[in-house]
From TrEMBL:
This is Diheme cytochrome c. One of its GO terms (molecular function) is heme binding. InterPro entries: Cyt_c-like_dom_sf, Dihaem_cytochrome-c. The lineage of its organism: Bacteria, Bacillati, Cyanobacteriota, Cyanophyceae, Nostocales. It comes from Fischerella thermalis JSC-11.
Amino acid sequence: MTNLTKYRKHRQLQRKSLGLLLVAITWSLAMGWLISFATNAQGATPTSEIGTVDVVPAQYQLGQELYLENCSSCHIALPPQVLPTQTWKNILQDSQHYGGQIQPLVDPPRLLVWRYLSTFSRPILEDEQIPYRVNSSRFFKALHPQVKLPRPVEINSCVSCHPSANEYNFRRLTPEWENSN
Ligand code: HEC
Ligand code: HEC
């Protein structure tokens, strides 16, 4: 081999390895992006998990947010399904609240919260008494078939079986209940 061909071979090799290096860099960048994307998606799982009885379509999500904002500062927010529509209506209109006082919501938030609560709860029959406690709500009972509930069941008892009740998740159950189903 002449010196010239030696030199050319060397240059070729250099170019080849530079090309390989570029491929490697591009690859790791792409993988990094993919991995961060995957971890992000994983991080988002708890919030995208369905924690309530029904899936909430986009047009009710603001109403749900406003409900949580206004009604979960003193106690956990109850899912609308556990009480009849009439109960929610009366609670939203009243500043007298279970022996205390609350600031009633004003429109437009009140209307959005009302749309959310009324859509995801059911009306009771006309001659039925309106329950103001989950303990006397048949809708609440219907969601707990065969569950031995504390008597009376109170807004503070939910978390004993629903460990994520504070995050408005009533699907997740404590292990003993998870296994019994
Ligand atoms: C003694 C344990 C216990 C207590 C206390 C309890 N729950 Fe439950 N809850 C359960 C179990 C178990 C289920 C699942 C029942 C089934 O699927 O048959 C359930 C189901 C539910 C569901 C239906 C979830 C779904 O979408 O499948 C809602 C909503 C709910 N509970 C709300 C509440 C609220 C609100 C409270 C407090 C006022 C409460 N629960 C108190 C055990 C309990
Ligand atoms: C200033 C504090 C406060 C705010 C804000 C508040 N509540 Fe209450 N709520 C209470 C108290 C106190 C009780 C009675 C708790 C008890 O006796 O177990 C209660 C009880 C309840 C109960 C009865 C639960 C049961 O079955 O025993 C419901 C339903 C309820 N609140 C709904 C709401 C809604 C809807 C909103 C938002 C419009 C709201 N709360 C905002 C303080 C508040």
